Fold:
Amino acid sequence: MSTKFENPANGYKEGVSSVAWLWCLLFGFFYFAVKGVWRHALLGIIFAIITAGISWLIYPFFAKKIVENHYRRLGWQEV
Structure:
């Protein structure tokens, strides 16, 4: 099951998968970059360097919520 968001300006819809944790675990910061969450993509790289990659075992637990909050902050409506 995924959560869908709609951009009120142009009607574009984007989904946030319930297995976002898996995509984040497999692709790391690329997942956030593809979703347009550049802040966490850059933070993910920095944390991975500082923690020698251990942060990518923790980041997936928060991936879905991070992306959902990003869309809400941009003004997208949950459908």
